[in-house]
Amino acid sequence: MMAKKMVFLAMVTLMSMMGKVVIADDVKLDYTEALTKSILFFEGQRSGKLPNNQRLTWRKDSGLRDGFDQGVDLVGGYYDAGDNIKFSFPMAFTTTVLAWSVIEFGNSMDSDLNHALEAIRWSTDYLIKCTNTPGVVYAQLEDMDTPRTAFAVSAQSPGSEVSAEIAAALSASSIVFRRSDRKYSDFLLRRAIQVFDFADKYQGSYNDSIGRWVCPHYCDFSGYQDELVWGAAWLHKATNKTSYWKYVMENIHKVESPQNEGSLYEFGWDTKNAGINVLVSKYILNNKQHSSPFLHWADKFACSLLPESLNPSVEFTPGGLMYKPGMVNSQRVTALSFLLVVYARYLKQSDRVIACDRFVATPYRLTYFARTQVDYILGKNPMNMSYMVGYGEKFPERIHHRASSLPSIDQEPHLGHGWDYFWSNNTNYNLLIGAIVGGPDINDQYNDTRHDAGHSEPATYVNAPLVGLLSYFKANYGS
């Protein structure tokens, strides 16, 4: 009863801060359906030779000679968002979080678990190819409008952020496959160790080596030290070796400091700080090290997201959605909400609450707030629309996505650039089911047009944390 009373008071506080909140209370949400579709989305992002069990059949084979002109096989993997470029940095982050979702909530996925494993393996198979050549990590493959040139980092031209994130992805995935495919799991872990050693030995940002091509799409703005600590933390979780824990402890000061506090509330493909603290917190709590700085920063992160906080790290739309300036706001909503639910789970297991600036945050409070964010995405919002394609009665139909907006190649084999389709006001030809678009603006308004990429473009790293969230809510709140 006390937890529910606190939630009620928190929501009263939120409403008084923002004025009247208009929410469609009669919207019925089906977390099971949303989970299925959130995983299905990844099949629409596949590159390479598609399998016979491909469910989104409008997506066809593509990039079948990627890397061949440079003597390497780089066929496969995912397109990150609405175009046809493959970026290893955000792809690896997507894989890490997908794997983390399965580690935490796989038992709740039921029949969707196998599809989640397929989604992870589609990426890890590609990341293995990107790291097959010792001392080289392939970081990008250019668009279809170019010769599909591949760009790599090396000892002479380092890229610690992309290499360490790949190490994190392979480490997390090795945990996922430990039960079902031990041989594959062991291979992933061996490769993760090799790639992390490379990232650590030859330190430097890929901004300086291949920035001409990776920027402005995925410039590294937060530095590469967070990825190195993040990679070591995942290797520690996968191996339980003290050497990796020692690495985390000896290098965390390069990432976290009071002078760098703002980034401690961030988590996404570029910045891993909040993710490090939440991931490591489980080890800290299990060992009853309650005075740890990792818990301190994880607590501050969680408190800063709640609307009743005196020192919020986010803004809120009038309808209650977390909002941060920049493109594709939904990536922050899903990633930060995912961390809240994971941290709440760790807190509940250790029978712990958080003392925020003027209130106590229980695990229930954290998960309740995260659920409001997911519910907003699925349709409980002032626009009364779902921001997941193919879910609900009203959803975005003109998303910024090349393959979705063009006729499938079996209908129009000689399409060319297809600019007429881009500028058209017609709905997209193909439903990219499960895609989460960037979402509404700060005023809860959404203009359904593919011309506004910041709000209408989906991305793999938006869906990855949502898979975990939906699995949790499906198990705890039914359909």
From TrEMBL:
It comes from the Eukaryota. It catalyses: Endohydrolysis of (1->4)-beta-D-glucosidic linkages in cellulose, lichenin and cereal beta-D-glucans. Residues 31-470 form the Glycoside hydrolase family domain. GO terms for molecular function: cellulase activity. Residues 1-24 form the signal peptide. Pfam families: Glyco_hydro_9. PROSITE patterns: GH9_2. Belongs to the glycosyl hydrolase 9 (cellulase E) family. This is Endoglucanase. It comes from Daucus carota subsp. sativus (Carrot).
